[in-house]
Design brief:
- The complex is a heterodimer.
- By secondary structure, chain A is mostly helical.
- Among the domains of chain A are: 113 residues, no CATH class; 65 residues, no CATH class.
- Chain A has 24 helices and 6 strands.
- The radius of gyration of chain B is 22 Å and the shape is globular.
- The two termini of chain B are 25 Å apart.
- Classes of the chains: A mainly alpha, B alpha/beta.
- Chains A and B meet through α21, α23 and α24 of A and β7, α7 and α8 of B.
């Protein structure tokens, strides 16, 4: 595939802007990928601040405003109080929509997909909220610590049958997913490794919603995993997994999928795996390096990822500065195939083309139509007023403005001309026209990419 | 044999498709596809009904005369007098009156003892196996009917070839590499809203949306995939909405979920738009405890919905065009458990509803004494049924799709 070749040319060297300097489009790309897109004012502010400073702020955001914190805490209390998972979903969506720490939320979602745990089985809002807090606490921290802690996370233990894992009847569920999905990937362990590792995790139980080391059910015998023998326990297994050659590569694949796109090759995986080892699994350093890289800003990476429902919906809210109805939003996300806190299986969401079928295309299009003309999901503040005066004197300028605000991939000349014809025929560039133009741009295939 | 022109005329005349609302290229493609069907004498549809959760086959087609049945199931057995007798050994669950009627009319076939080697008792894994028709540990990412559509995709782009009804996401059975099957959660939501009140402007934007989605030159790219899907979505939504508005059912459908879905399927079949594959699911068969009530309700829903569906099709002279089949990821253990329920098992039966089946019961009921770790043994691989559907009904090359040949099963006369 041609795109794959062009990615290989880029590297993890620090990105050097072209002759025109860092562009608005590059700033918009950064805010989309490392967050959930942004308003025009935020894009221009980032553009003025420069790439280095913007990335620094994403990695180490300022304290959130008091108003955000109050609403955040209130929504959290409501969710814990009602015990309704819908309320916890609303709480998280509020964070994704409003938090100034957008990368933190993006990384938390990435780990939620990686350590995919569903309320459908855990059946406790408190435990799902605790796990979410754990993921957020370490989302840009030490991946080793994250794996150690997730291994004794109560929601995870319920999800993968911790209590069923006993010395007499080892249950392999957690040991298998730890290797297959959390740290190594298929083909990098043997069935024997899993059986032995399961014994090491035996007795890692839950009692009264707390982690509990159940000595009576733990197997203290000698186990042998990846060629290492001894009275290994669960923490030893986690360490052994993280020491495997395959682990940084597996993690690199995940990060490249999320931040660069589907067309990367072995070269990039190996490069990034090397950096993960170099930084000893410190995710802030690894992700920071990735965001600053030539690879991140390379043309082949730009607009290469099919937007997940969260990226599509929350990104649209942020771009248009919508105050959303959070409950309706969470229902929509479920219909679009990304029901947060309820991933379909422990494998998480497949992503990519799996997000797109005719039904989800219609739902995405209808969401846009409703947002720009209806009330269901929230109100869009005056669109035309958000456009700098200089950019609304002609249809052509307006189209260019919205294109640079929205598009991760540019529409073809042909399409731009058609849009221009449509607007020219309609008279003045007013609010109504602007909304119809947005409707067409946001239902375009190009807008499904981020 | 209708020509392209008469097809267009018919569509226009019946008001099924609003000619003005559709781009000419698509309409031409749709009519070509329909013409092709006509030419091949096809226009056939397969309705796949998933009984999700693992249907207790032993309490569905019941070996009422067998002592071992009574002995293994003191709590959940269906009494001899209650079963709807098919012959001296077998009877249907008492909730299946309508299906008994279909059986008596010669429309219902029962394929017994269906399964696969080394049965897996995990819902997820076994459902994947049935949906992909593959036993490989490495799960293929496409389904068996998705592969069928991939086999012959280019000429039918733009037609509403396959539809799944009522799912949050496209079921694996229909997932394909290139073909796009719409996933219709419910008909009301499967439409394209444009917003605004100015009809002329809406028509303009509707046309622009199709133009902006026109595929480019790189058909393997993600962008062209999204473009194709978008056009297919807009087009199929337009058609579906107009179909639903103009159809009059010839039967009283039960007001249950499956009945409503099958009614919609009958409407789409009647519209003759070339849809070949339908996929629906009835869930809740995972009856680990207090099985009787739930199982009765589920089989009642299946039976009444199928009964109405068949009457409706007959009322429209469409029964020759449709075959329906059921599947479930596994049957249940022969011996009941301690909570008046049954646990995950293995082999079970499949139902096939069609206007030309061979007589009634196909294959022996699996032995109740010669068991595999407490489960019924299969004698018919489920892929033999798929093979018959592909080769003898839909007309697709089964070997390429199923990756091999299976013993031939004479499902169609």
């Amino acid at each position: 595939m041609t795109t794959a070749d062009s990615v290989s040319l880029a590297s993890l060297e620090v990105f050097q802007p072209g002759p025109k300097g860092w562009t608005l489009e590059e700033a918009a790309h950064l805010l989309r990928r490392a967050g959930f897109a942004a308003r025009w004012q935020e894009i221009t502010a980032a553009h003025r601040a420069g790439a280095a400073a913007t990335i620094e702020r994403l990695l180490a955001p300022e304290e959130p405003p008091a108003e955000f914190q109050e609403t955040d805490e209130l929504l959290h209390r409501v969710a814990i109080g009602t015990g309704e998972i819908q309320d916890l979903k609303a709480w998280w969506l509020h964070r994704m929509r409003y938090s100034n720490a957008a990368l933190t939320e993006k990384m938390t979602l990435l780990w939620h997909n990686h350590f995919a745990t569903s309320h459908a089985k855990v059946n406790s809002v408190r435990l799902m909220a605790d796990q979410n807090a754990l993921l957020r606490r370490h989302c840009l921290g030490d991946f080793r610590t994250l794996v150690h802690e997730i291994s004794r996370d109560v929601a995870m233990l319920v999800w993968l049958d911790g209590n069923a894992n006993k010395k007499r009847h080892p249950n392999e569920n957690y040991a298998r997913e730890l290797m297959e999905l959390f740290s190594l990937g298929e083909g990098n362990y043997s069935e024997r490794d899993i059986q032995e590792a399961a014994r090491a995790f035996s007795g890692w139980h839950v009692r009264e919603n707390e982690f509990w080391f159940d000595r009576g059910h733990h197997d203290f015998g000698t186990k042998s995993v990846f060629g290492k023998r001894g009275n290994l326990d669960g923490d030893d297994i986690v360490d052994l997994c993280l020491e495997q050659e395959a682990c940084p590569r597996f993690l690199a694949t995940k990060l490249l999928d999320a931040f660069i796109g589907p067309h990367v090759g072995d070269v990039e995986v190996n490069l990034l795996a090397g950096r993960i080892r170099h930084h000893d699994f410190a995710m802030d350093k690894v992700v920071g390096e990735l965001l600053r890289s030539e690879l991140f800003f390379s043309p082949a990476s730009r607009g290469a990822i099919i937007k997940s429902p969260v990226d599509f919906v929350i990104g649209t809210y942020r771009t248009l500065d919508v105050r959303p109805n959070l409950q309706k939003t969470s229902q929509l996300l479920a219909e679009l195939g990304q029901d947060v806190f309820e991933p379909p299986t422990v494998k998480g969401w497949e992503g990519g083309r799996h997000w797109i079928n005719t039904a989800t295309i219609l739902l995405r299009a209808n969401f846009v139509a409703d947002l720009l003309g209806g009330q269901r999901y929230g109100e869009v503040p005056a669109v035309v007023e958000s456009v700098p005066t200089a950019r609304r004197t002609s249809p052509k300028e307006l189209i260019e403005h919205f294109a640079s605000l929205l598009a991760s991939r540019s529409l073809g000349e042909d399409s731009l001309e058609r849009l221009n014809d449509y607007l020219v025929g309609a008279g003045a560039v007013d609010e109504q026209r602007s909304r119809k133009l947005l409707h067409l741009l946001m239902t375009s295939p190009e807008y499904q990419f981020g | 044999m209708p020509t392209r022109r008469t097809f267009l005329k018919r569509l226009g005349a019946t008001g099924l498709v609003s000619l003005s609302g559709l781009p000419p290229a698509l309409l031409a493609r749709a009519s070509l596809a329909a013409e092709r069907h006509q030419r091949q004498g096809s226009g056939r549809s397969l309705v796949v009904i998933q009984l999700a959760g693992g249907n207790d086959g032993l309490n569905t087609v019941i070996p009422y005369g067998n002592d071992l049945y009574e002995k293994n199931r003191p709590g959940v057995r269906i009494g001899k007098d209650a079963v709807l007798k098919l012959n001296d050994e077998l009877g249907l669950h008492p909730a299946m009156g309508a299906m008994k009627g279909l059986y008596d009319d010669g429309a219902l076939a029962i394929v017994q003892g269906v399964g696969y080697p080394n049965p897996n008792r995990s819902h997820f894994r076994s459902t994947d196996i049935w949906q992909t028709a593959s036993l490989d540990e490495e799960r293929p990412d496409v389904g068996w009917l998705g592969r069928a559509m991939d086999e012959d995709d280019s000429e039918r782009e733009g037609t509403l070839r396959a539809i799944s009804l009522g799912f949050d996401r496209l079921p694996l059975t229909l997932v394909a590499h290139t073909a796009n099957a719409p996933n219709v959660r419910d008909v009301d939501r499967y439409r394209l809203d444009l917003g605004g009140r100015d009809d002329a402007d809406r028509t303009k934007r509707r046309r622009l949306m199709t133009e902006l989605a026109r595929p480019g030159s790189d058909s393997a790219s993600d962008l062209d995939f999204v473009r194709r899907t978008s056009i297919s979505a807009y087009d199929s939504a337009d058609r579906l909405q107009s179909l639903v508005a103009s159809y009059k059912p010839a039967a009283d459908y039960p007001r249950n979920g499956l009945g409503q879905k099958l009614q919609l399927i009958a409407q789409i079949v009647a519209a003759e738009v070339g849809t070949e594959i339908f996929f629906v699911s009835l869930g809740g068969f995972d009856t680990h405890s207090q099985q009787a009530g739930a199982h009765t309700a589920l089989l009642g829903e299946l039976s009444s919905a199928l009964g109405a569906f068949w009457s409706d099709l007959k009322g429209h002279d469409l029964e020759d065009r449709v075959v329906a089949m059921t599947f479930s990821e596994f049957g249940r253990r022969v011996k009941e458990n301690g909570s008046l329920g049954t646990d995950h098992g293995a082999a079970s039966q499949m139902f096939v509803l069609s206007a030309q089946p061979p007589a009634g019961i196909i294959g022996d009921h699996p032995s109740l004494s010669d068991l595999d770790d407490g489960d019924l043994k299969h004698h018919t691989d489920f892929r033999s049924v798929y093979q018959a559907m592909l080769d003898d009904w839909l007309g697709y090359p089964s070997q390429a799709i199923l990756g091999g040949n299976y013993p031939r099963l004479a499902l169609f006369s």
